[in-house]
Structures are given as C-alpha cells and as structure tokens.
Amino acid sequence: MSSFDFDELPERRGTGSIKWERYPDYTPFWVADMDFVSPPCVVEALQNRVAQGVFGYAHPHDGLIESVLGYLERMHGAEVAKVDLIHLPGMVPALSIACRAFCEPGDAVMINSPVYYPFFDVASDAGAEVIDVPHIRDEVTWRFNWDAMEAAITPRTRVLILCNPQNPLGRAYTEHEIVQLAEFCAKHNLVLVSDEIHCDLILDPQQQHFSTLRLPEEFRQQLVTLQAPSKTYNIAGLGYSFAVIENPETRRKFIKAQGRTLPEINLLAMVAAEAAYRDGEPWRQELITYLRGNRDVLAEFIQNEIPELTIHEHAATYLYWIDCSRLDICVKPSRFFAEQAGIFLSDGTPFGGPQHVRFNFGCPRDHMLKGLHAMRDAVKRNSNHA
Predict the structure, then answer these.
(1) How far apart are CA 112 and CA 152, in angstroms?
(2) Are residues 306 and 360 in the same domain?
(3) Alpha carbon of residue 204 to chain centroid
(4) Which of 96, 166, 297, 322 makes the best surface tag, with the fewest CB within 10 Å?
(5) What is the CA angle 364-310-304, rounded to 5?
(6) Are residues 341 and 211 part of one domain?
C-alpha cells in the first residue's frame, strides 16, 4: 500500500499555474509538470526555510552540494568533484549557454528529432544553425540514424545536444548507444551536451538510465552533463539545475559564456533540491510505480478503445508520444482534441513530429482516464461523421 497519495488532484486553478491557466477552457494534459503534490520532505524543508523569515542573497550551500554529489554517486555511480559542479537556474538557459560557449556565428549544432522543442532554438542564441537528423523507427524501437548523421555533419558542426531519456519518444538509451554517440562526437570533435532532466523517471524495472557521466574518461573531456530534480519531484517552477563538466577548459568556456544575463538561483529552489536529493527517494520509488501503472492503463486504453491512434513502447518520462496520422481530420490533432474533446495536449509540430500529440500522464489515474474517454468519444464522433 502506498505511503503517499497520488490519487488526489490538487486544485491548481488560481495558483498562477501555466498548465491550468494558460488555456482555461480546456482540461490540460500538456506541459511537463505533474498534478501531484511534491514530496513531504520538500514541502517541509521549504516551510522551515520560510519560517526563518530572511530571504537575502544565497549561494549553493554545503548541504545542497553534499546532497547533489551524494545523489550522483548513489544513483549514477559517478564520483564527481565539487569543482566540476556548476549550479544553474534552469535547464533551457544551460542549453543556450552551451551553444554560446562552444559555437561561433555560422557554426552548427546537431539534434535528433522529434525532440524537446527548445533544442531547435538554442543554437540561434549563438548565431549557429541547427542540423536535425531525425530518429528512425525499426521493428523494435526508435534509433539514431547513424548513416544520416555521418552524411549531415559539416566542418563547422561544434555541438551535439542529446536528450536522454528522450522527450517525447520515451526512450531510455542503452549503454551501447550512448558510447556509440560519444564515439561519433569524438570522431568529429563535437562537444556532447547531454540533457538528462528526466533521468530519474525510468518506468521499466528491467531498464536503467545510462548517464554520460559513466562514459570512459576519454569521452568526458568534451562533455557537458545537465541534470535537475525539477521533473522528478515536481518542483520545476522553482528553477534549479546543474551541470557537471570534468575538463577544466570545457568548464571555463561554459562559465564564461554565462555572462551577466542569468538571474541568481532562487534560494528556495536550492532548499528544495537539497531535500529532494537527500530524502526524496522513498517518494520517487512510489511515484515510479504509480506512473508505470498510468502508462500501462493509457497504452491498453488506446490500443483497445482508440485503435485509430498509434503508440509505441514507452520506457521513461510521464509524457506519451501519440501518432494521430490515421485520424481523418483536417486540422492539427492537438486542435482537434481541444475543440472536440475539451482537452489540451502538446502539439507535435514544435517537437518535429507533425500529426502527433504528447500526452502528460503525470496525474491521478481517474483524471487521466477522463481525458482518455474524452479523446475516444471525440474520435468516435468524428468517425461517425466521416
């Protein structure tokens, strides 16, 4: 029996929630935050800090640093030196910094779509172009298109940004794949920037996250590994992430590229991160079990009740990628489901996947099922009118 309640839907309207208030006419299953209360250890740590009553300038304190380093060793088998750790106010700014650190105007950044949509934009912050080499689908799973990547590389390609686990495909890449990607980057002298924000959300017990932090030493010299507690512990609105950069020169370039444009890290974000990494593991374990159940219910429902939609295996994240190309509709699928089902889903186009939607199942199961029933009914009505 669960020690934590994942079945209660908190009231989020009127709280400044982007997810619930940006499109108030629809029930939201889009942006990547969950409809669960954060772990009690995080809430308690924040309450204790607020009770202190002083909110002056803060820096990454010893408790936070020890908590992050302990987490990296415990969860990823990585012994990271304190000097290699760079604290940041968010993941997307970190991606932008990486492009500015290692690219000049006219250079290129390689990505593999469909992928988290800021990947398409951050290169422009450095005046660089994007080289997108889409994933390919074989009889088993989504994979890198190695031949196409070799064909697309240019002498001015400087960075490859990896999304692992993959958002929105839900893939957890294997050790072999990550090593092969590192070999590709080394061959072409690319800096590998690994966005691992969903790394603690592997849903399949037989799989585990292979972090780039575990790559052989020769591949860690042009490596920027980015992680955060935000998605796992539902504290994205607080804004804390970190980079691990082992090579001093690579680290120097990254730090220099920050300039003076980043805000101070929110002191409450650091308190929350410390508590999550130090004491949040029991909650995370029960969260994974609940999300796995949601994923399985969602997959079975779509396969049995909405066969017009196509889904594939899903190993990680609470974001399911759904192919709607077989629907007989003349508008984008996200618009169809908004107008006909009253639910708001992430549109696939910005991810590089037109005719797809991304469904956020990080919510109480009954709430998720209401959304799925609305989708089914909308598809049935559309089929009857076709």
Answers:
(1) 12
(2) yes
(3) 17
(4) 297
(5) 65
(6) no
- Taking 70 as the threshold, does the pLDDT of residue 1 lie above it? no
Q: Among 238, 254, 252, which residue's Cα sits nearest to residue 58?
A: 238
Give the tokens for residue 200.
């603690």
Closest alpha carbon to 75 in 268, 285, 235, 246: 285
Distance of CA 156 to the CA centre of its chain: 28
Q: How far apart are CA 65 and CA 58, in angstroms?
A: 13
Can you give the pLDDT at residue 385? Answer: 72
Tell me if residue 182 falls in helix, strand or coil.
Answer: helix
Range of the domain at 333: 18-31+281-385
Closest of 104, 60, 59 to residue 253, by C-alpha: 104
Distance of alpha carbon 311 from alpha carbon 294, whole angstroms? 15
Distance from C-alpha of 246 to C-alpha of 78, rounded to nearest angstrom: 11
Which one of 231, 256, 279 terminates a domain? 279
Residue 153 inside a domain? The answer is yes
Q: What is the pTM of this model?
A: 0.97
Same domain, 265 and 360: no
| DSSP assignment string, 332-344 | -HHHHHHHHH-EE
H or E stretch covering 302: helix 281-305
Assess whether 149 and 195 both reside in one domain: yes
- Into how many domains does the chain fold? 2
**CA–CA dist 369, 34 (Å, integer):** 15
The amino acid occupying position 69 is L
pLDDT digits (tens, 9 = 90+) for 155-203: 999 999 999 999 999 999 999 999 999 999 999 999 999 999 999 999 9
Angle between helices 365-385 and 281-305 (to 10 degrees): 20
Query: Could you tell me whether strands 241-244 and 223-227 are parallel, antiparallel, or unpaired per DSSP bridges?
Result: antiparallel
